[in-house]
Structures are given as structure tokens and as C-alpha cells.
């Protein structure tokens, strides 16, 4: 279930004020403190720091969606998987690492092939991308090729780019301590906005800064979990185990 989104508090109220009966957030990645000058000075990417500007979005009406993956005619993906690309599959049904490809340099045809690859492999990782340093505007323009931006009202966003969902922990020590007072692990599970009528088809996750050890993100192929759950329930369904 989603946590309560941070709100802009009156200046007379301390930023870190908590009532004893206030619930503990389910997500320690959401800081309940304002970003200040000290926080800004500590990061290499101040343009990505979360902001809590008040915004209102009307309910999104149903819309027609053209999946770019359906535009691909050559499933070998020659525009994306060039001879310079090194492809490593992580698991049989999920996860691929591609090295030697810069997302910022992809043609529209290559982006369509990327959509198809993501549809097939669920999670595709591209190490050492210059798109991170290109800034929020460049990333948003890249993702608009894959569909409308999705707005999640549960976290801070990049100012001027509400489609960003910022995971930021600097300056959040008090909230982290409260979180761990009720738990023995920081491991959390969630499924992105599956409650929406038209949930996002594609999501880009970029790591700006992280610890040398820990901070891992684990992905699960829920479609395969569903198939195997049916299998274990003695229901006959088609299975594709590959070659």
C-alpha cells in the first residue's frame, strides 16, 4: 500500500515534528525533511534533488496507446543490438545487461527495438550511461518516446518534471531510525502503480549515487509467478521453457 505523501508544512511547525501516534512510513527512501544547502552541497546531482511543490493533476481519461514494441518488424533488433553491443542474460526469463550502447544515441527505430526487448526480458540494464549526466529534461524526452509520463503522488519530484519519482535518503536519519525500530531489515517489496486503469508500460530507473555495498534492487517476473502458480494448482497452461 502506498505511504502518505509528504506535505508542505507551515513554517511555524518544525520540519521533523512527529506525534507519538503518527504512523511509521513503509518506505525509508522518502525523506520527510526539506532539502537544504548542506544536502545540496553533498550531492553531485543537485538538479535531481526532490521538491515538494504543490501540484494538482486532473484524473487521466482513458487514452489510446501505441506500444512502440509493436512497430518492430525485425525481431533481431539490428538497430539496438549493433556489433559493438555486449549482451548478457541474467536469468532465463528475466534480466539482460547490455554494454557498449549509449541510450542517448539511439535512433527512433532502436528505441522501438528497446521497447520490444524490455517486453521480452522485463528488465534491461545499461551500465555507464551519459544520459544520467544529460539532466532531467533529456531523460524525460527520451522516455516520452515510450508513452505519456506517469505521475506518482507519493514522493518528491524534480522541479519542472513531475514525472520523476525521486528516491532520496540523505538527511533522513530520524525517519530511518523510526523505521528500523519496528523492523529488522530494510528489505521492502512493492509493485508499481498496478492499481491504475492504464499503468505505465515502461519505467526507467537510474542510479545517481549509491553505497559501495548494499542498496540492491531486486526485480521479480510476476507473469512467470502467475504461470507457475496455475501450474501448481494443477491447471494446464502452455509453457515455454526455451531451447
Automatic annotation (TrEMBL):
Annotated GO MF terms: 2-oxoglutarate-dependent dioxygenase activity; metal ion binding
One matching Pfam family: TauD
InterPro entries assigned to the protein according to its UniProt record, in alphabetical order: AtsK-like, TauD-like_sf, TauD/TfdA-like
Secreted recorded as keyword: no
The organism's place on the tree of life at top rank: Eukaryota
GO cellular component term, pick one: cytoplasm
Cofactor(s) needed: Fe(2+)
Keywords: Dioxygenase, Iron, Metal-binding, Oxidoreductase
Domain TauD/TfdA-like stretches: 87-227
Name of the protein: Unnamed protein product
